[in-house]
Design goal:
- Residues 200-356 form the Glycosyl transferase family domain.
- One of its GO terms (molecular function) is glycosyltransferase activity.
- This is Group 1 glycosyl transferase.
- InterPro entries: Glyco_trans_1 (IPR001296), Glyco_trans_4-like_N (IPR028098).
- It is a single chain.
- By secondary structure, the protein is α/β, with parallel strands linked by helices.
- It folds into 2 domains: 13-178 and 363-380, 3-Layer(aba) Sandwich (Rossmann fold); 181-361, Rossmann fold (3-Layer(aba) Sandwich).
- 44% of the residues lie in helices and 16% in strands.
- It has 15 helices and 13 strands.
- It has helices at residues 26-37, 56-61, 78-93, 104-117, 134-146, 155-163, 181-190, 218-230, 246-256, 271-275, 292-299, 312-315, 330-342, 344-361, 364-380, and strands at residues 13-19, 42-48, 66-68, 98-101, 120-125, 149-152, 172-174, 204-208, 236-240, 262-266, 280-283, 304-307, 322-325.
- The strands form 2 sheets. It has a 7-stranded parallel β-sheet, sandwiched between helices. The chain has a 6-stranded parallel β-sheet with strand order 10-9-8-11-12-13, sandwiched between helices.
- α4 runs parallel beside α5, α8 runs parallel beside α9 and α8 (218-230) crosses α13.
- The longest helix is centred in the last third of the chain and has 18 residues, at 344-361.
- It is elongated, with a radius of gyration of 22 Å.
């Protein structure tokens, strides 16, 4: 809990931000930004399933200690019910008004606990549930229906909840992710934390995504790069991210003959500085929520090539701020790269438009302001 600010007059809204952990990820970064930015009219508390992750230090520096409600393995065991009851008691003891829960596993604890404690609860649905099987999707849908309100970060997710899960549109708010441009620019200026491969004067493409799930479709990117490489286009690619699929992707790059121009950088903490050295960015997933990787590429002034899935089209319209291609179409991906490389002035203009869009529509101030208004409405009524 962070101590209450003195002299605030009326009792502040007691708000809990609940996320799975503070490992590096889009959701965790957005929670951290809310902790930094919400006004002192809140008495903020943090709860997690796992008290771990490199971002936890930033949480501590802000003055918060996280209350932990561990699942300890399978959710189909007595501990889950115990943690629900334990959290309900904790919410009542702290007279919590509102819980904002940001992911599926945390919702298993937070939603029933809030209902037992008489607290309001907002569920965050921040992806298309593409990684969930039918049973988990059914459970997540039921937990979402129990919430007082739902926050999504992309229009595609809102449509899914209305069309497929039957959630009333009035109970859903679309709030895009936010990005602190000043902090991002400072990270770019800090420079690289480790050397990059020597690419000479060749153009550079950057792809930032984990290598855990096939949904990221790095295979399509490698195929597109092979088409350009064997056609004589000297494009290098930096693949930032790691996971169990990396070795297979490295093998595929070798088989396609692009090992010398495709560079696997693994995890990096200097992504902003890497983007600053790039010519264009790409995200070619077959499913996606609101991608922080795309937002950061746009903030760096890069034209982005994205697939027509999920929240990608909230960020990039084809021909505006970048190019949009169908998913799982490597040839069209290659054509988009070639189009941007062949028309550098057009590419620069798209990059400038992308940067302006982030400043105008995806600011951290806007993220905080819209959440603040929603929290007040849910707690106090319209």
């Amino acid at each position: 809990m962070r101590r209450e600010e003195p002299g605030m007059g009326a009792r502040p809204v007691r708000l809990v931000q609940f996320t799975r952990s503070f490992h590096i990820g889009g959701t965790e970064v957005q929670v951290l930004e809310l902790l930094r930015g919400l006004p002192p009219s809140y008495q903020l508390q943090v709860s997690v399933l796992e008290d771990a992750g490199p971002l936890m230090g930033a949480v501590w520096k802000l003055g918060y200690t996280a209350e932990t409600f561990p699942l300890k393995g399978s959710v189909a065991q007595a501990n889950t019910a115990y943690q629900v009851l334990r959290m309900a008691r904790w919410l009542r003891a702290h007279r919590v008004d509102l819980v904002h829960v940001h992911d599926f596993y945390s919702s298993l604890i937070a939603v029933p606990a809030a209902k037992l404690a008489g607290a309001k609860v907002i569920v965050g649905r921040l992806d298309l549930s593409h990684w969930q099987g039918p049973a988990r999707r059914a459970v997540h849908s039921r937990l979402t229906a129990m919430a007082d309100h739902v926050v999504v970060n992309a229009e595609a997710i809102r449509r899914q909840l209305v069309d497929e899960e039957g959630l009333p549109a009035a109970r859903i708010s679309v709030i895009h992710n936010g990005l602190d441009l000043a902090r991002f620019d400072a990270r770019m200026l800090e420079g690289l934390k480790a050397p990059l491969p020597d690419t000479g004067d060749a153009p550079i493409l950057v792809h930032v995504a984990n290598m855990n799930h096939p949904v990221k479709r790095q295979e399509d990117l490698l195929l597109a790069l092979a088409m350009l490489h064997h056609g004589g286009t000297p494009l290098h690619a930096f693949l930032v991210g790691d996971g169990p699929r990396r070795k297979g992707l490295e093998k595929l790059a070798a088989e396609l003959g692009v090992s010398e121009t495709v560079h696997f950088l693994r995890h990096r903490t200097d992504v902003a500085a890497i983007y600053a050295r790039a010519t264009l960015g790409v995200l070619c997933s077959s499913a996606e929520g609101m991608s922080n990787a795309v937002m950061e590429g746009m903030a760096a002034g890069l034209p982005m090539v994205v697939t027509r899935v999920g929240g990608n089209t909230d960020l990039v319209r084809d021909g505006e701020r970048g190019l949009v291609v169908p998913p799982e179409r490597p040839a069209q991906l290659a054509q988009a790269f070639n189009q941007l490389l062949s028309h550098p002035e057009k590419a620069r203009r798209m990059g400038n438009e992308a940067r302006e869009f982030v400043a105008r529509e995806l600011s951290l101030e806007r993220l905080v302001r819209l959440h603040d208004a929603l929290y007040q409405r849910v707690v106090h009524g319209p």
